[in-house]
UniProtKB/TrEMBL annotation:
GO terms for molecular function: S-methyl-5-thioribose-1-phosphate isomerase activity. It holds the Pfam family IF-2B. Keywords: Amino-acid biosynthesis, Isomerase, Membrane, Methionine biosynthesis, Transmembrane, Transmembrane helix. This is Methylthioribose-1-phosphate isomerase. It is an enzyme of class 5 (isomerase). Belongs to the EIF-2B alpha/beta/delta subunits family. MtnA subfamily. The chain crosses the membrane at residues 52-72. Its EC number is 5.3.1.23. Pathway: Amino-acid biosynthesis; L-methionine biosynthesis via salvage pathway; L-methionine from S-methyl-5-thio-alpha-D-ribose 1-phosphate: step 1/6. It comes from Thermosulfurimonas dismutans. The active site is at D246.
């Protein structure tokens, strides 16, 4: 059996990828069960992203890239031209999985460009090239996280409590994590930090996934109800806030898990630094501001029930935006693998991110 994975993988991974298919750690069942779901077709991969078996912006991008490889393996194209047009159809299908995380579109476009750039390669060779490219995207994301960890760790206090929202850890990325990677790196460097993890209703990424990961990584963590953040900040119990991102506009406006905006406003009110950690693949310089970022609306049932049990009265509906947009003015700094970015973001983002990363 052939196994495709980075040279130096993290202790926690969302995938096992072999020549038998893509095995996704079912994040809906964590922390109770560590079960893998096998995907053999790109349609199964799209469904897994949609249903949040795998989630988190960079992880969605990597999964889509691997999904494209699974689709490419099954194309029965005899010519390079037929192969490329089949590949684009698969990419189009995968791009429908979720709308907000730009990493999904970024990864698919990068894969298509890679295939197109190989002028002489026939279908068989292109499958191999695409497999290598998907693996490279995974590896690059993992090393970007380690680099963000080193750069961002400097910003965190020598001791104290850091608050985070949702899950921006190894499960949401190629490994190590963005926001959680920064916290892990700071703790590995000897800082005495503990973490407050917002439970993150309705999907409970904080209570289930962030707490599970940090425990595995040996970082002290306590879960708080989302609504407790402001009170704890006002009492002086939070020294910094750090979150990930799903899409960062050219002016620094940041889409992330619903509830992030409220946290940023509360941090400002209480004089607490608010950091965003994200790889360059999460920037969308084609979006001038957060107004242009498409925000996913998920099923009302996710809000109306908890732990698989309905909690709201019958006949009542719910509004369930999965993300919100934090205006750039609330963000103290953005941590990327290419460097730390400070305001004014409209000026500094293009300088640090550059256009070569944008598809
Ligand atoms: O709906 P999700 O779980 O995919 O949302 C995830 C987040 O909002 C994360 O904070 C973001 O994708 C960054 S992950 C490094």
């Amino acid at each position: 059996m052939k196994v495709y994975q980075p040279q130096d993988p993290d202790i926690i991974s969302a995938w096992r990828w072999t020549d038998r298919g893509l095995y996704l750690l079912d994040q809906r069942l964590l922390p109770w069960k560590e079960t893998y779901i096998r995907c053999r077709t790109w349609q199964e991969v799209r469904r897994a992203i949609k249903d949040m078996v795998v989630r988190g912006a960079p992880a969605i991008g990597i999964t889509a890239a691997i999904g494209l490889v699974l689709g490419a393996e099954r194309l029965r194209a005899r010519t390079r031209r037929a192969f490329l047009s089949g590949l684009k159809r698969v990419a189009q299908g995968l791009s429908k999985a979720r709308p907000t995380a730009v990493n999904l579109f970024w990864a698919l476009e990068r894969m298509i460009k890679r295939a197109e750039a190989e002028g002489d390669a026939g279908p068989q060779e292109l499958v191999e090239i695409l497999r290598q490219e998907a693996l490279t995207i995974w590896e690059e994301d993992l090393s970007a996280n380690r680099r963000m960890g080193r750069l961002g760790a400097e910003l965190l206090p020598k001791e104290g409590t850091v608050l985070t929202h949702c899950n921006a850890g190894a499960l949401a990325t190629g490994g190590y994590g963005t926001a959680l990677g920064v916290i892990r790196a700071a703790v590995e460097a000897g800082k005495k930090l503990s973490v407050l993890a917002d439970e993150t209703r309705p999907y409970l990424q904080g209570a289930r996934l962030t707490a599970w990961e940090l425990r595995k990584a040996g970082v002290p963590v306590a879960i708080i109800p989302d609504a407790a953040a402001g009170f704890l900040m006002a009492r002086g119990l939070v020294q910094a806030v750090i979150v990930g991102a799903d899409r960062i506009a050219a002016n620094g406006d940041t889409a992330n898990k619903i509830g992030t905006y409220a946290l940023a406003v509360l941090a400002k009110e209480n004089g607490i630094p608010f950091y965003v950690a994200a790889p360059s693949s999460t920037f969308d310089l084609h979006c001038p501001s957060g107004q242009n970022i498409p925000i996913e609306e998920r099923a009302p049932e996710e809000v109306l029930s908890c732990g698989g049990r309905r909690v709201a009265p019958c006949g009542v509906s719910a509004v369930n935006p999965a993300f919100d947009v934090t205006p750039a003015k609330f963000v103290t700094a953005i941590i990327t693998e290419k460097g730390l970015i400070y305001p004014p973001y409209s000026e500094n983002i293009p300088k640090v991110i550059g256009s070569e990363n944008q598809t």
